[in-house]
Amino acid sequence: MMMEYEHGKKRKVRNRQHQPKAHFLSLRYLTICLCCFFVLLFFFLSSDRISVRSDSLRPSLRVPALSVLSSMDSIQRSFHGRFPPLRVGDRVQFPDHVLLILSTRVGRGVKELVCVYHGGRKEETLVLKSISSDEFDEFRSVVRCPNAPLNYSSSVDLQFNGDLVKKKMSDDEKVHDWAKVGYEAVIDGDTVVVFVKGLTRRPHKESDPSYYKCQFETGVEVLVTQALAAAQEVVRCVLPESLKLNPEMFRVSVIHIDPRGRSTPALPSVARVYGSEKKSEVKVKKKHELCVCTMLWNQAPFLREWIMYHSWLGVERWFIYDNNSDDDIQEEIELLNSENYNVSRHVWPWIKTQEAGFSHCAVRAKDECNWVGFFDVDEFYYFPTHRSQGLPSKNALSSLVSNYTSWGLVGEIRTECHSYGPSGLTTVPSQGVTVGYTCRQANPERHKSIIRPEMLTSSLLNEVHHFQMREGVGHMSLVESVAVVNHYKYQVWDTFKAKFQRRVATYVVDWQENQNQGSKDRAPGLGTEAIEPVDWNRRFCEVWDTGLKDLVLSNFADQVTGYLPWQRQQLQQD
C-alpha cells in the first residue's frame, strides 16, 4: 500500500513538472496556427482568386499555379495595402506613349505606379514614372507609360514604386501597333459592333461588308461570323448563337477578305466584351426624351456651366467620353451627380477616334434615350425667337425635339453654328463663356445634330457633325431665328492654344502638321505653332451679339450677389 502511494505521488510530481511546458507548447502552437490562418486569409481575400460574377452572384474560385516566391510577393504587397496584384493584359503602342491595359482595377490617378523597361539583356532595367492611370471598364484599368527609351523594349511592365525590380521572365509579351488593332467592341442586340484600326481609311463612306468577318475567342473556342455592315473604323457582325444564349467574356477581332476571297489573319485585338454587358441590358420603362454625348480632353473647368445651362433647356442624361484628361474631370462629374445631374464618364483612351466614339455612344444611348445630341463643351444652344418674343426658354430644347418624336420620317435635327471670338478679352471670363464672349463672325459655319439613335444606318457612319440615317429617314434643318448654336470656338489664347496639342477627330489633321492650312477646321491666319498673334483678342469679331448673355444673366444670376451658379471660386471665397 505504501509502495502504491509512493508511486502515485511520484507520478503527480512528474505531471506537475510537465504541465507548464505542455501549457506553454499549446499556447505557442495555437499562436502559430492563428498567425498562419490570418496571413493566409488576408492573402486569399486581397488577391483576385475569388471573383463574384455580376450575372450569377455566385463565387467562382480560380486557383492558378503560383510559385512560392510570387505568393510571398503578393502577401508583401497586400500587407503594404497594394492590391490587387498588377497584371498587364495588353499593350498598345501610340505615337507618344505606351498604353497598358490591366486585367485588374487600380483606380484613377494612382501616383505610386511606375513603368519598368527592359534592355537588350534581361538584367538591364529602367524605371520611369507612369503618366496616368484610370479605370477602363467594369474589370480593367489602363495605365499610360512614356515611350521606351532607345535600346529598351516597348514591352513595358508595371509595378508599385519602391518594390524590388524584377527581371523580365520572357520575351513573348506582344505590343500592338495602334495603326493596326481592334480596340473596342459593344453588343447591340444580336450583333456586335467592333472598332478597329488598319482596315480602311475611307472617310465618310460605307464599305462592302462581304470583305469582313469577325473572330470571337472565348478561351474555349474560336468562332467566326460574317459582317453585316462596315464603315470607316466600324464593323458590325452577327453575334454567334452560343454567345447569344450564354454570353461570357470574349475577345473579338476582324478578318479582312480580299477580292479573290482569300482571308488574312485576324487583326490583333484588345477589344473585349463581358457577358454582364448583355445580361445587364434591361429595357428602360420610360426613355429620357433628350440626352447628350460629347468627347473631351481637359475640360473640367468648363463642364459645369455647359451641363447646368443645357439641363435647364431640358437635357436629362449626359454621356462624357473622356479622352485621356489629366484634370479634375472625375471629381467635377461626381459633384454634379451629387446635385442630381445624371452624368456618366466613359474612359476612352483611343486618340483621334471621335467618329468611332460617337458611334459607340449612339449604341449605348439607344436603350435610354429618344434623342441624343452630339456637340462640344464650348457649344451652347440658344433660341433667339423665345428671347425676342418673351417666351420662356426653360426646357425649350427638349420641347423642340419632342415635337418630332412621333414623326417616323425625321431622324435628325440640324442647327447652324455661330463662331465667337475672344471679344477683346485676354483672360478667362470669370462668369463663364456665355457671358464673357459676345462678339462673333457674321456667317454661320456648319451645324450640330440631335439624332434618333434607332434610326441610324447599321454602319453607324458619321462625320462628327451628323450621322447617316436609314433609307427613307430624313433630317430637319432649323432656321437661325428659331435656334442657333453659339460656338465659343476662339477663346482667349491661354484656353485656345490647347487645340494645338491634338485634335480628336479621325480625319482632321493636327494643327502641328503642315497640311490643309486653309481648312475650316483650322483657325484662319494661324500656322503650325502655338504662337499668339499680337491682335488675337480682336480677331473673329464682326457682330456684337449679347442675346445669350442677357438670357443667362436674367435666369441664372443670384439676385443679391449677381454670381452665376458655376462661379464656384467666387462663391467659395464669399
From TrEMBL:
Which cellular compartments is it found in? Membrane
What protein am I looking at? Answer: Glycosyltransferase family 92 protein
Q: Which GO terms describe its molecular function?
A: glycosyltransferase activity
State the annotated membrane topology for this chain: Single-pass membrane protein
Q: Which UniProt keywords apply?
A: Glycosyltransferase, Membrane, Transferase, Transmembrane, Transmembrane helix
Alphabetical GO CC annotations of the entry are: cytoplasm; membrane
Q: Which domain of life is it from?
A: Eukaryota
InterPro entries reported in the protein's UniProt record: Glyco_transf_92
Q: What is its EC number?
A: 2.4.1.-
User: According to its UniProt record, where is this protein mainly located?
Assistant: membrane
> What's this protein's family per the entry?
Belongs to the glycosyltransferase 92 family.
Give the organism the record lists: Brassica napus
